[in-house]
Every structure is written in C-alpha cells, then in structure tokens.
Amino acid sequence: MTTEKVIITGGTGLLGKALVEANPGRQVICTYIGDYAVPSTNLVSYKKLDVLDLDGYVDLFNNFRPDVVIHAASIGSPDYAEKNRENTWQVNVGGTKVIRELCERYQAKLIHISSNGVYDGEKAPYAEQDEAEPINYYGQTKLESEKVARQVSVPVAIVRPILMYGWPHACERGNIITFALSRLGKGETVNVYEDVCCNPLYALKCAEAIWKIIDEGKYGVYNIAGRDTVSIYELVKCVAEVFGYDTALVKPVRQGFFNELVRRPKDTSYDTGKMRRNLGLEPLGTRDGLVMMKNTRQRP
C-alpha cells in the first residue's frame, strides 16, 4: 500500500467516483460542491469545498499536505459555458490557477484533467502533439486551463479524457449512457448524433490510466480514450444491444436537431499510441466497456 496522499477536486463527478473505486490504497480527500453529504471511509474522506475558495483550499493543503492533486473539478457543458461565460472562465481557468499555486506552494504533483474539447474535430485521430484548436467557448476555457497548469514548477500531467461513460455518483448528473438507459427503460425514443464521433472511454479505464501515471511517475500530456471510433448514434445503439433494449428506439439525428447553442467538434477521436507505449494500457473496446458497466452494480 502506497503512503502518498491525494486530493481529488470534483471528487463526486464521474471521473472522481471512478478514481475512488480504482484507488490502489492511497489516503484521499475528495472535494465537491453538491448540496449533499458523502460518507467517508478509512481511506477516502469528502469535503464540501468550492474550487474558487482559496482560503478553504489553503487550510486543506496545510492540514493534509497532499503529495498529488488530481484536478478534475470543472464546468463540462458546452451550452452552459456559452450561456455563462464569466462563471465558466472563473471555474475552469481561475480554479486551475488556485490549484496550481497551491501545488507549487506545497510541492504537490499535479494531474490536470482537460478534454477532447480542445480539438476542432477536423483532423482526427489526434495525438498529444497535434495542435489544439477549440471551436467553442468551453474548449477555449479548457485549453487556457491547460496553459495555466503547464506553468507549474512541480511535475504535471495534462490528461485529456474523451467522452466518458459509466455509473455516476447517486447525487450527480448522469452521462450519455445513463440518459439513454433511462429513456430506453421507459420505451422512449432516444435521438442521438450520427455526425459526432469519438472513441468513448469507460471512466474506470481513465481512472486506471491516471493512477498509473502517478504510480510510475510518467508525467506529461496524455490523450486517453477507448479503442473504437464510433458515432454517438452507434454508441447508443450498442448500449441498447448490450442492455437488452429495442435498438429501433435509437434514432440518428444531426447537429442542430436539439437547437444547441454551440457546435460540437465532429470527430475528436484519439490516436492512443502514447497511452499504450508509456502506460502499457490497451484501450478498451466499446462493447467490452458497456458489458463491464452492465456487470458492475451501480454504487454511490
């Protein structure tokens, strides 16, 4: 069992929950902002703390003295970001500045969680060295947060998960898969993009990659994804097949159908070569990930 101590910001989000489930034995404090309480365990405790609360984080760092901080807290909705630009910048960029400064002050290594939203979707598959050119405001804030994180004087990893899926925390928002399962379970139609593609990522596999970066000290930039490049329509059709629902309920639509505020990149699928080479991790196939999800009982 390792003795390193870790702070996870956004610790009740989809990735935060997966990191806790895959925790290899570290003492962890998860911060979150939801209006609910989360019971602690011997290894993992939870603290309600806004990423913009500098004084609160100073107290946390001073008392806990983390060795590593996984900064996963951010605003992740492109439409929300477009409508709430100031708040999104404060959280995604300003929050990263708070964490970066404290990592420097307390000499804690930093894992900064970014997004496939930094790419324009026109030149897939994307490797880590490919130019990041976001096409919406959300992507701009994530790219700027990367620049902030890179300025830290301690070891830093920039991790760019692609579209993630899995069982969310009971008190947190769902994801494309759980949304689809909710509608399919009621016999309702699910309209999903056929013109947006990626290689979807099971959240527990992303967590595995992050713990491996920490375990082996292999800091740097990582594009983390699954094996198969599929459209969101193909993904959700596979969900229906794996979970035993009627695939005819899944209907393909194109961008604009939902009157979205902002355009999504059409194909941000990743070249996962560095993930394979540096971390020794083979990307998980879409159906394999969905079967794993189906066979895993949902936990808070």
Describe this structure in words.
This protein is α/β, with parallel strands linked by helices and 300 residues long. It has a domain at 5-167 and 201-225 and 270-283: Rossmann fold, CATH 3.40.50. Helix content is 38%, strand content 17%. The protein contains ten helices and 13 strands. It has helices spanning 14-21, 54-64, 78-83, 85-106, 137-150, 176-185, 203-216, 232-243, 273-279, 286-294; strands at 5-9, 27-32, 44-48, 68-71, 109-113, 156-161, 164-165, 190-193, 197-198, 201-202, 221-224, 230-231, 250-253. The strands form four sheets. A seven-stranded parallel β-sheet has the order 3-2-1-4-5-6-11, with helices on both faces. Helix 1 (14-21) links the parallel strand 1 and strand 2. The longest helix has 22 residues, at 85-106.
In the CATH hierarchy, what is the architecture of the domain at 5-167 and 201-225 and 270-283 at level 2? 3-Layer(aba) Sandwich
The amount of helix comes to 25-40%
Determine and state the CATH class of the domain at 5-167 and 201-225 and 270-283. Alpha Beta
**What order do the helices and strands follow?**
EHEEHEHHEHEEHEEEHEEHEHH
Q: Helix segment count? A: 10
Order of adjacent strands in the largest pleated sheet: 3-2-1-4-5-6-11
Termini separation: 24 Å
Spans with pLDDT under 50 lasting ≥5 residues? none
Mean pLDDT: 96
Q: Give the C-alpha Rg.
A: 18 Å
Binned strand content: 15-25%
Shape: globular
Overall structural class, as computed from helix and strand content, comes to alpha/beta
Q: Give the name of the CATH superfamily of the domain at 5-167 and 201-225 and 270-283.
A: NAD(P)-binding Rossmann-like Domain
Q: Number of DSSP strands?
A: 13
Reported for the largest beta sheet, the result is: 7 strands, parallel
- CATH fold-level assignment of the domain at 5-167 and 201-225 and 270-283: Rossmann fold
